[in-house]
Every structure is written in structure tokens, then in C-alpha cells.
Amino acid sequence: MIVAANFKMHKTRNETKEYLDELKKIKFNGVKVAVFPPASALMEDKIVGVQNAYPAIDGAYTGEIGLEQLNEFNIKRVLIGHSERRHILNESQEFIAKKFDFYKNQGFEIFYCIGEPLEVRKKGIKEVVEYLKTQIKDIDLEYENLIVAYEPVWAIGTGESASIEKIKETHEEIRKLTSKPILYGGSVKLNNIKEIIELPNVEGVLVGGASLDVETFKEMIKIAKDMK
Ligand code: PGA
């Protein structure tokens, strides 16, 4: 079971440090825990991953960080393809695939996000699958350090997660495309995590808003521990 926290543009370096200290007071017992703080709060810690990185060692890429900066903190985990980067920062599939290849070649653990917008979901599961396939174009879905995260755009940060039926049917479809772990993300909370991680083809969760409170995130890890 995998339980991951995406802080997005929340928390400072000090707050992140306090959060990690508090988090480590509990035993994870085989649950893989990952925390993605903002780039300004990166620190050397096995739990920590980066929310975004440019596919280069270094270079003239204003505003970006690359492998050199990640190596400083021994970061070996990266989030790629998050819907906010696809839709707000306008990252193309071509660019996302470049990032994937670069960090795959560096042996990084890659949390690779896919998910459809509401207008696609409204058309039905067949169209959803077609759309998701465009988001895995040129991605090696059998890469050994890959974790896939299914995050429907309409469920992210809305407080309204996908229904259990929709998560179940979509994960079943994604399972046909990869044998790697598949996480669900999108308004995961303390009151719905259990029924989500109980589903077949759901190996964990990627949590945004609800992960910001360390006590809530600790509870989520406890629930995942009890599942094993
Ligand atoms: P949310 O975000 O839990 O706040 O919906 C999930 C994500 O974007 O990873």
C-alpha cells in the first residue's frame, strides 16, 4: 500500500520539517509513504519527492530546477504529469514524456499522473479510456520504478471524490495497460480512504488538501496499515 502527500504550493521549509518529524513518530509497517513538498522545502529525506523537475542536469531554464539541484538533497522520487501541470501550466504530452524518459534514465521512482476532465467523463468509460491513452503516449508503463496515479480532474480539490463504482471501473481499465501499482487521487479524505483502498486494482492514494494536516495524514497511514 502506498500513501502519498502532495502539498502543492503549501507549506514552508520549516513547516515541512516539523511535519516530517511529526509523521515519523508513527511506524509505517510496510506502507510506502511519500511526501511532495514545494521545491523550496526539499530536504534530504527518503520520504521526500519533488513535485516537478526539468528534464536536464542543469542549464538555461529560468525558474526551473533539474537533476543537479535534486542531487543536492539526494532526491530520487518525482511526480510527473499532474493535472495542474497539464492544464494550468500547459505541459504537453510530448514534454511530459521527455521528463519521464529523463528521470527514468536516472532511476527515479516516478509517480505518473493521468486523469480526464469532466466533459470526457460525461461521455462514458470508453471515452475516458481513450483520453487516458493519450496521456500515456510514449510512456513506458512497465518501468520498474513506476507508480501510476489516476486522478480525475473533476475530483481534484473539489471535495467530491469519484464514486466507488467509477474508481473501480477506471482502475480495472488502467490495470489492462500496466502491471505497476495504481493510486487513486482526487478529494481523498479520512472518511473515504478505507473504501477506496479496499477496491481491487487500487494500491494506494495520492492526497492533496487532506494531507496538509499531519494528524489526518497519520490517520490515513494507519488505515492503510490495517489493510495489509
Ligand atoms: P486533492 O488533490 O486531494 O486536494 O483533491 C489531489 C492531487 O491533486 O494530487
Percentage of helical residues? Answer: 25-40%
Order of helices and strands: EHEHEHHEHHEHEHEH
Structural class: alpha/beta
Instruction: Quickly give the CATH architecture.
Output: Alpha-Beta Barrel
Give a description of the structure.
There is one protein chain. With 228 residues, this protein is of the alpha/beta class. It has a single domain, classed as Aldolase class I (TIM Barrel, Alpha-Beta Barrel). It is 35% helix and 14% strand. It is built from nine helices and seven strands. The chain has helices at 13-23, 67-72, 83-87, 93-105, 118-121, 125-134, 164-175, 193-197, 214-227; strands spanning 2-6, 32-36, 77-80, 109-114, 146-150, 182-185, 204-207. A seven-stranded parallel beta sheet has the order 2-1-7-6-5-4-3. Strand 1 (2-6), helix 1 and strand 2 (32-36) form a beta-alpha-beta unit. It is globular. The structure holds 2-phosphoglycolic acid (PGA).
